[in-house]
Amino acid sequence: MPELPEVETMCRGLHPLVGGTITRVEFLRSPCRPIGVRPDRRAVRQRMAGRRLVAVERVGKRVVLVLDGDDRLVIEPRMTGLLLLADPPSAEHLRLELEFSLTQGRTEQLRKLWYWDRRGLGQIAWWSAEAWQSSQTRSRIGPDALLITLDELRHKLQNSRRAIKVALLDQHAVAGIGNLYASEMLFVAGIHPARRCDALNRSQWSALYDAMRHVLSEAIEYEGSTLSDGTYRNALSHAGRYQNHHRVYARAGEPCPRCDGGTVTRIVQAQRSTFFCPGCQRRK
DNA sequence: CATATGTCCTGAGAGC
DNA sequence: TGCTCTCAGGACATAT
């Protein structure tokens, strides 16, 4: 489930490690199927060891550990991946352990960073500086949802025949939006999730753009959403709080928080749940 | 090219 | 109580 706000929160939580040197890299043997590591575990372990962490960045829903020399370790948590400095929820789903050495004055401190993933759909990939550079210029992934301009968003999607909800999930168009926040931002914008992109007018694109920025930044302030399965946690293993502020997601049957008489409704689009209010998100 | 569908994965919860 | 089944949705592979 981690989408842009959760991944942003994870990244911010890793800030204490910046400047530290990686002293140990351990891919943990677990009864679970190993997650994908590219090029492979041994190569990644060799390349990581002794490197300094220069920055932690986010690209869409991916966490990028920038190392000295500009090489990068890119972590995609997908559904259940977490990056933790403390208290993993279970030992058996730990996948990767990194040990960092941090110097503060004369004292040296060791800290661990774990990648934990219950379902194991996550991916970890090593990018050399050169490979990263060329992939950036070829730009396989779309502009980040918090960096894209209104014009870019409109030009990317306005000719698409897809439903707007489905198009918002396309990471090649705009990166960072997932199933939960797509429903939330369409509700705030007052747009029916099944409206075709090519049927939206200029003021609706503008409303959607504003709603996208509003919902995502609000969710970051609350440190993301921890759903009923309780999986998502920040780096210190604390739950997010934005689930208490969801307007429609997973609220089917509840009264609309905006209009009189509307009921939040669940539909399925592209095999995913969508939540909206038929009363104030009109088809036309 | 654009769009739609299938696939992977684990554990919670429903229903019998 | 204990079993089987369905569902949750990240990204990508494959099909149309």
Q: What does it look like?
A:
The protein is an alpha+beta fold. It is 25% helix and 24% strand. The chain is built from seven helices and eleven strands. A five-stranded mixed beta sheet has the order 2-9-5-4-3. It has a four-stranded antiparallel beta sheet with strand order 1-7-8-6. A hairpin with a 2-residue loop joins strand 3 and strand 4 (62-67). The protein is globular. The mean pLDDT is 93. The chain binds a DNA duplex (16 and 16 nucleotides) through residues 1-3, 32-33, 61, 76-81, 93, 117-123, 160-162, 166, 169, 171, 178-180, 227-229, 270-273.
Fraction in beta strands: 15-25%
Shape: globular
Helix content: 25-40%
- List segments where confidence is low: pLDDT < 50 over at least 5 consecutive residues: none
> How many beta strands in the DSSP annotation?
11
Report the total helices: 7
Descriptors:
single chain; 284 residues; alpha+beta; five-stranded mixed β-sheet; four-stranded antiparallel β-sheet; 24% strand; DNA-binding
Q: What's the structural blueprint in terms of helices and strands?
A:
Layout: H1 4-13, E1 21-27, E2 36-38, H2 41-48, E3 53-59, E4 62-67, E5 72-76, E6 81-84, E7 94-104, E8 107-117, E9 123-127, H3 129-138, H4 150-157, H5 164-168, H6 179-189, H7 202-221, E10 265-269, E11 272-276
Parallel strand pairs: 2-9
Antiparallel strand pairs: 1-7, 3-4, 4-5, 5-9, 6-8, 7-8, 10-11
Helix pairs in contact: 1-7, 6-7
The structure holds a DNA duplex (16 and 16 nucleotides).
Short description:
With 284 residues, this protein is of the alpha+beta class.
